[in-house]
Amino acid sequence: MTHPPISTDRNHEALDLLTQIRQWGEELGFQALGFTGIDLQPHEAHLEKWLAEGHQGEMSWMGEHGKKRSRPSALVPGTCTVISARMDYLPHGADPEGILAQSDKAYISRYALGRDYHKLMRSRLAKLAKRIESRLGQGHYRAFVDSAPVLERALAENAGLGWIGKNTMLLHDKAGSWFFLGEIYTDVPLPADAPQQTQHCGSCRACLDICPTNAFVEPWVLDARRCISYLTIEHPGSIPEALRAAMGNRIYGCDDCQLVCPWNKFAHQTSEQDFAPRHQLDDITLIDCFSWSEEIFLTRTEGSAIRRIGFERWRRNIAIALGNAKTSDTIVSALQNALEDPSELVREHVQWALAQHTQSA
Q1: pLDDT score of 7
Q2: In the sheet where 32-36 sits, what is the strand order?
Q3: Catalytic residue chosen out of the listed positions 88, 104, 146, 223
Q4: Which is deepest, 4, 59, 77, 167, by most CB within 10 Å?
Q5: Rounded to an integer, what distance in angstroms lies between the CA atom of residue 75 and that of residue 170?
Q6: CB 230 within 8 Å of CB 57
Q7: What's the pLDDT at 8?
Q8: Is there a contact between 158 and 95 (Cβ–Cβ < 8 Å)?
Q9: CB count, 10 Å around CB of 72?
Q10: d(Cα 109, Cα 315) in Å, to the nearest integer?
């Protein structure tokens, strides 16, 4: 059921309500909230073109929901307002560029160093929705954090939380891009914020040029099939040999296009303790990671986004990084010991890695 607009005849009451919701959001650990309607037509056209060109790779789920991804009311009937929420995640810890420069270290995307953000943010959004419902005494509310077909960056842009940059990330001129996004869909009409009107990327190409695997077809178009984040996390099988060397020591995700973005000089480090690095994953060697048994992997990735790739892909990714590392007896020995790995997928990548050290000898 769609509810009547909130205080359309008394604008100050509506603004007071939004101020109250933003205050609640701050109390729950969100750095910003924005409000928007549900018109995503330009973004829908962009998505359909992207899918038609096959840039989604094996992420078939990107196209399995029809118009639900770009039409919020098709996903949750009655939706007319979306509340978009931002939560910063950049943790204190080892310098990421310093880790990338050491070929024997394991680079893990900064978002995955601590607790999995999905449950944390969804729980906080659900609490926010409860407060809004209690205040208004009406409405239905659904919270999402990567848990449904949602065009979260498009909604956030429309809600005034930033602009979609050339690297397809949402950027903010006072917060960079090191943040998570979540949404609350509701059938209660709330005043909308002004969308971001200006793209502040200008002529900058830093993110496009830094990409190790040249995954950007053009500005604002990412071919996931070449993206290291896709390859190490979403891709289930053998990683194309032509891309392995460029992956360097990145074993879970890639942050290069964020690290080089000039706007990230304004990024804020998180105060959220759950996002702090666990098990020294911000500064750990490849050999240490490769030595984990499956039991250790499951223990140390409990509550972490890393666990979703499973032990086999974890080993596959590290094998590639070891192949790219500076040759040492320790690395060669570790790879030789893995030649009998029970996984055919892992063995293939171990053999490739060993060949790299043979060629460099």
Answers
A1: 47
A2: 32-36, 81-88, 179-186, 141-144
A3: 146
A4: 167
A5: 23
A6: yes
A7: 45
A8: no
A9: 29
A10: 16
Q: How far apart are CA 132 and CA 189, in angstroms?
A: 12
Quick one: which of 159, 208, 200 has its CA closest to 38?
Answer: 159
The widest CA-to-CA distance across the chain, in whole angstroms, is 78
Could you tell me the pTM of the whole model? 0.94
Contact 48, 167 (CB under 8 A): no
| The two structure tokens encoding residue 211 | 């990409």
User: Which DSSP state fits 53?
Assistant: T
The span from the CA of 316 to the CA of 299, in Å, is 19
C-alpha to C-alpha distance for 244 and 317, rounded to whole angstroms:
9
pLDDT at 2: 55
- Among 192, 158, 182, 160, smallest CA distance to 173 is for 160
Which two tokens mark 336? 């030789």
3-state DSSP assignment of residue 203: coil
Whether the CB-CB separation of 309 and 109 falls below 8 Å is answered with no
**Shortest CA distance to 184 belongs to which of 24, 35, 65?**
35
The stretches in the chain having pLDDT less than 50 are: 7-9
**Spatial separation of the C-alpha atoms in residues 80 and 78, rounded to whole Å:** 6
Res 276: pLDDT = 97
> Token digits for 46?
């962009």
Reduce the DSSP state of residue 320 to 3 states and report it: helix
What DSSP line would sit under 116-182, residue for residue?
A: -HHHHHHHHHHHHHHHHHHHHS---EEEESSSSS--HHHHHHHTTS-EE-TTSSEEBTTTBT-EEEE
| Contact criterion met (CB below 8 Å) for 174 and 163 | no
Angle, CA of 332, 333 and 334, to the nearest 5°: 90
Counting beta carbons within 10 angstroms of the beta carbon of residue 111, is it exposed (0 to 12), middle (13 to 18) or buried (19 or more)?
A: buried
Q: What is the pLDDT of residue 6?
A: 53
Catalytic site residue 209?
A: no
What are 212's two structure tokens?
A: 């190790």
Q: Helices (H), strands (E): how many in the chain?
A: 15, 11
Run of H or E including 321: helix 310-324
Structure tokens given for 67: 């118009």
| Per-residue tokens: 37 | 């309607």
